[in-house]
Structures are given as structure tokens and as C-alpha cells.
Amino acid sequence: MKITSTGDKKKRWSISKIFTYILLFMGSLLSLFPFYWMFVIATNQTHVVNKMPPAMLPGKELVKNFQNVLSNIDFFKALLNSFIVSTTVTLSVLFLCSLAGYAFAKLRFRGKNLLFAFILVTMMIPPQLGLIPSYVIITKLGWLNDLKAVIVPGMVSAFGIFWMRQYIKESVPDELIEAAKIDGCSHFRIYWNVVVPLLLPAFATLGIITYMGVWNDFMWPLVVLKDSSMHTIQVAIRSLNDTYVRDYGMVMSGTFWSTVPLIIIFLIFNKFFIDSLTKGAIKS
């Protein structure tokens, strides 16, 4: 029988740990490089992009390129529109999906499993299939060129209901629900006073995913928002490509500044996001 010494185990463990850190470091570089390259282009003139080898260091044209953005589109108005749409949709999704998730996780009613299965099936349908019917409905309602056309269809999501249902089912003890019922609480009061305080990590995760998805949405706002004063930031940046001579520095400058709010939001809620994803990974 071969006996492995403690020194050999520590050596193998150290090599394995170093190799893991190297892989993580390389993965981080690959993930961050597109953002860095976007910033490099945003700080240089267009001809620098076509140089061989390409420039890898930031230039001095960030302010000038952003001034070109402001002269071509109403950047801050588009940014405000995106903020209104993303914030409204995210708050609505957090409230409605958590409410539905609580019902599916803790309440008993006829047809619950069938209805939840139907919600899961809707997640498999490509959103492009609903583009024309949704456009017809929005037109009939007279919501074209109105932010309601972008806000209302996204106020609840199948993924949000699924996410909240799973989180509540695993993280909210049935004993708390029963104790609240004994105290005479209504279902909504149980949801608001007992369940909601326990959902901060789930709220942060779903909120970040929803906010980023709505902020980066391009196809639907492009279809229903024709007036430039109603454009969200992604549609407004797209119009920067309509010029005959494409200024990549200007386009990337607009893209860079439109990404900054998302980075700030992620940094603020990063801790809750990680807590939610790792919850249940370590069991006592």
C-alpha cells in the first residue's frame, strides 16, 4: 500500500490551486477585453481602428468623440427614456413576479401545476414570433411612439415567476407562513411582511437581469418608437451608424457611456447577486 506524504498532498493541492487561478485569470481577461477594446476605440480617432497592428492603448479623443455623439443624437433624452423604461419594468417585474411566485410556491389552488407548466412553456417560445401580434395590439391601443408600448409588455416575465417560485419554495420556511396565518394575517400581508424581507438576494438577481435586458433591448423599441424624442439609448446609438462615413470612435463613445449606468448598478447590487446565486451551494 502506497502512503502519500503530507508534503506531496500540499504540493499537488498548490499546483491545482495555481492552475485554477490561472484559468480564472485568463477567463477574466477574455471577459473584460471587449469592454477595454470598446474604451480604446472610444478614445481614438476612426483611422486608429484600421491600423495594423491596432492600437491597444487609450487615446485622447474621448471628449471630442462624445461631443460628436451629442451633436448627432439627443443622448441624454434617450438615456432618460431608457432609465424610465428600465426602472418601471424592473419594479413591476419584481413586484408581480414575486407575488405570483409566492402563490405558486406556498398556496394551494386548483390547476396550480398546470398553470405553472403553461408559464414554463411560454419561456420556450421565441420572442420574435410575438412581434407582429404585439405590434397589432399596440397599434389598436394607440400606443405607437409612446413609452407605454415598451413598458407594458414587459411588466411581468415567465422567467421572473419561475425564479421567484423556486427561491421562495426553498428559502421561506412553511412554519413562518403557518405562524402568520395563526396570527390572522391575510395572504397579501403574509407576502408583504413575511416573504418580501427574505427576498432581497432574489430581488437583486432578478432586478439586475431584468434591468440589463430592458436597457439593452433593441428590436421592440426600434419597431414601436419611431419618433426620435422617444428613442431609448440603444435605438439612438443605432442611428449613429446611419451616416455615410461611419465614425467608429463616435459610435463606441456613445456605446461606452450608455454602458456606464449598467456597470454602476451591477457594482451596487453585486453582493446580493452573488449571495443569491450561491445560496444553497453550502449545506450545513
List the helices and strands and how they pair.
Layout: H1 6-42, H2 46-49, H3 62-72, H4 75-106, H5 112-122, H6 131-141, H7 148-151, H8 158-171, H9 174-182, H10 187-195, H11 200-216, H12 219-224, H13 233-238, H14 248-278
Helix pairs in contact: 1-14, 3-14, 4-8, 4-11, 5-8, 9-10, 11-14
Structure description:
This protein starts with 5 loop residues before the first helix and ends in a 6-residue tail after the last helix. Helix 4 packs across helix 8 and helix 5 (112-122) packs across helix 8. It has a single domain (63-278), classed as Orthogonal Bundle (MetI-like fold). The longest helix has 37 residues, at 6-42. It has 284 residues and is mostly helical. The model is unreliable at 280-284 (pLDDT under 50). 71% of the residues lie in helices and 0% in strands. It has helices at 6-42, 46-49, 62-72, 75-106, 112-122, 131-141, 148-151, 158-171, 174-182, 187-195, 200-216, 219-224, 233-238, 248-278. It comes from Neobacillus notoginsengisoli.
